[in-house]
Amino acid sequence: MVGPEGETVTQRASTGGLPSDGVIDATLEEVHARYHGLDDGEVADYIPVLAEADPRWFGLSLIESAGTVHEVGDVDTEFSIQSISKAFVFALVCQSRSSELVHERVGVNNTGLAFNSVMAVELNDGKPLNSMVNAGAIATTALMPGTTSAEKWENIRSGLSRFAGRPLRLDGRVYESEMTTNQRNKALARLLESYGRIITDPLDTVDIYTRQCSLQVTAHDLAVMGATLADGGINPLTGRQVVSAEVARDTLALLASCGMYENSGEWLFEIGLPAKSGVSGGIVAIAPGKGALGTFSPRVDAAGNSVRGQRACFHLSRALGLNLFASNAVAQRVREGR
Ligand code: GLN
């Protein structure tokens, strides 16, 4: 803990607005046109079925906290959510157990290492460090309430569906494909067990984790899910409170430091938004109080982040004033009476 123990201070929020609908729509079109021909990166194939994705797919969705939808390209194409599920499972566990529990058991610091690193666990006495890398995500899934594995899985599926505002379905082919090739995740779960870091059955927990990664979403869904975190935990399309404003805030803080794996620092420096990526090509980037971007394009870089998605977020963050750290000089204008 960095903050004072046992002391609470009421959280006030301070965020600006977005440009007009016309500016947002024109900027989305421009960004889509600019990057749709970019062919850097590769479609992930370490989960064999993912290799079937069409590398041309490219969709951009921006949903405002107030509910207005702006989209261009392949925003209705379904793909497996993969690592982006980690952000929302983290939020659900914080909501149903507590943020402090996840902070204490899993951690909230970046590993500086790849998403599937075994070494990160070994270097830290078995502590997985954060819920956005595989070891930490498995440890977080293990904390999901439910007396049986089926109940835990149903809590995750229905919880993520509340974020999306529609029932999400499992892609059985992706699930089967990953279950036959995820020896490393099973090893990570056994390693956590050996350190006493998970007390549920490790292989059952990996099974639930793999299911959560296999839920099918679209770029539109990602924007709705992100906009829920941007809107104090209320889904802007259904009006339903999915998690508390405090949990939404805690989730965004974790995404800012860990959401883009070992590239999180570079991402925050350049783009200035909490975000989460998945190896199937999705990215969700959140501008608190304003809205969220959902992007989808399957070619990913070495860290597993979508190449076109990152470029699009970079451009949109600047052009639409989304960067959390950007400000305009006010004092000078006031002094000059402008
Ligand atoms: N299901 C994938 C895995 O566990 C998720 C990884 C990712 O999207 N980076 O390897």
TrEMBL record:
EC number, UniProt record: 3.5.1.2
Statement: the UniProt record of this protein carries the keyword Secreted: no
Segments for region (Disordered): 1-22
Taxonomy, superkingdom: Bacteria
Acetylation as UniProt keyword: yes
UniProt GO MF annotations: glutaminase activity
Binding-site positions, substrate: S83, N134, E178, N185, Y209, Y261, V279
Coiled-coil intervals: none
Record keywords, A-Z: Acetylation, Hydrolase
Catalytic activity: L-glutamine + H2O = L-glutamate + NH4(+)
Pfam families xrefs: Glutaminase
NCBIfam families per record: Gln_ase (TIGR03814), PRK12356.1 (NF009020)
Binding partners and assembly: Homotetramer.
Family: Belongs to the glutaminase family.
Descriptive protein name: Glutaminase
Organism classification: Bacteria, Bacillati, Actinomycetota, Actinomycetes, Micrococcales
